[in-house]
Fold this protein.
Amino acid sequence: MTEAAIEKENKQIARQYKELLRISYQTLTEDDKKLIRKAFDTAVDAHKDQRRKSGEAYIFHPIAVAKIVASEIGLDATSIAAALLHDVVEDTQYTLEDLKEMFGETVAKIVDGLTKISSLKKDKDVSLQAENFRKMLLTLNDDVRVIIIKIADRLHNMQTMDAMRPDKQVKIASETLYIYAPLAHRIGLYNIKTELEDLGLKYTEPEVYNDILTKIKESKEEQDLYIKEFSKIIQDSLDQEKLDYEIKGRPKSIYSINKKIKAQNISFDEIYDKFAIRIIYDSEPSQEKFLAWKIYSIVTDHFRPNPTRLRDWISSPKSTGYEALHITVMGPKGRWVEVQIRSERMNEIAEKGYAAHYKYKQGDDNKEERGFEEWVTRLQEALESPDVNAVDFVEQFKLNLYSKEIFVFTPQGDLKSLPKGSTPLDFAFSIHTEIGLHTRGSRVNNKLVPLSHELKSGDQVEIITSENAKPNINWLDYANTARARAKIKSSLKDEKKEIAEEGKAILARKLKAQKIQFNEKSINELVVFFNLKTSLDLFYRVGIGKIDNQMLKDFASSRSNSLVSYFKSKIKKPQVATDLNKDEITAKYDQLVFGKEEEKLEYKLSNCCNPIPGDNVFGFISVNDGIKVHKKDCPNALQLQSNYAYRIIQAKWIDSSQQDFKAVIKLQGIDNLGLVSEITKEISSNLHVNMKNLNFDSSDGVFSGRITLVVKNNNILNTIIQRLKKINGIDKVSRE
């Protein structure tokens, strides 16, 4: 490079630095400016010999990231300094120790978190990818600013990706749509989320992106005129009320237009709400709510509102902190128009997320730190289970990131926000883990409801608990939030491990009776013989009686047949269970069951999506082919579920070797006081037994009864029958 070019570049760098200070959203003190200057000088020195693929000096990238952090996200000086230094440890001679010495613990910790994310192994394999995201999300434990600066870093990379290879562009864009856009959404950075989604689409589906972009540009003039016409009608009324306001038109993002086109199978021209109109008013905090509804009444005086499309996030803000009043009205020329009513403060919170909250909480010392702590607590729900599968984890996390919210009341009248689709179980776990784990039932608006009942905004929810209640496998069908599901899975795992411990002791006794040594070799042989994966699988199935005496005798005889064993060992190496010592009980999805009663029915797997065991599926009752099984994300699922809802049947894959069975027993005998109580006590004192149905009839001193039980196996059922026969007054017990 020539001296003149270097001179020009240096001037540009100095200009960018000044702009960084000028556009900072937070008010910077002298100490803040010193910290930022020091970080800037360090970054310039560290990256002095580096260039980006586009040819420009590398330092422009950290400055751009710091500018996004400072103005668009509105973070503090510590974050701006960390953003300037975010690539220093990874790419240059500076170490983490140097940064700790120069900038203190906090900045060094944030940079360390960012370095860890960058050095994650990049791979096309989805499970590795998910594992990397999971590790990234776990850095929330250290400092949530790590994630925010990472989002800013990703935004700038997306904005400057033109010089990259096409395959790299697609990979980075897909990754952005997969996790960074949902994260930005959850954090309340709606502007950044929209930009990330649009840029993601630009590189993953360029033709689609460019087509919609062209159409938006073509209709821009017409839209501007329409906004002008709409605004003119209400401006006089707003002026009469002496309001200080601004009306802005905002086109819908390219990504959301494309999503609508695909979901509703319509063309660009058929989308009626391609833009929203935003009325932003200036107000004292005490007048905000009053003025919002005043503007609402002015708008609805002129335009008829759609009553089903009113969203009041001023009385109940979203958990991201978003506040606004949304109404959809019939505008001029018979077009539906979404009108968003927000104060200046609400608008800044919508654009900057939590950072704007701090600015408005005047006189609160150390407010940023406290705000971040609250925020981390909210975002940590999905991170609480360290042993859940990485792909499930990321999917579950995304589910909670993007979910719409409902607002429900506790019996004391406190308001709780939950994701749409939540059930009483989700509510119970959101209050406290212990309440969730001991839930026995629930009342919604004073009526008893099943645990699978879907809650609606405005419901008052009361949880009935019992010391003896504990989660069962069906709870996973009723819970939708990441927190509840993680806690239920963890509890079920603990229970299974307890049963496995009992099973281990039983197995040791039974092998001794068969004169077989209880050691790793024999356990491995048993695991292979029963086609299992882990030793815990074996102990658990012995514990619940799925592997009984006869089966162990079969194993012993197959083992003692020395001639067969000799030839087998000559022909092939003895099999070794790959996951023998793994500390988990695995599932072998080998059976499909249908409906709430989990019946086994005839079915065919559909060719359009080819479901395999373990997939999330549903059954569709076809006219000629009986039940056809489809994956829940099958391309035809939406159409089938909307057009033929009455022919859809619940379906799920289960592990038949862990499955519970239903059995009906009939009882006859002489009626006496307390007999029913004795019967139920006897049944409930038996481990792993659940009563589904009870029916007793007494006539002239003789009684007959019918009980539906859920048992793990035949042995347990026979034990119960034998014990019931011993109860005084019972004459006959038989299985139906």
User: Anything to note?
Assistant: DSSP finds 29 helices and 20 strands in the chain. The two ends are 92 Å apart (CA to CA).
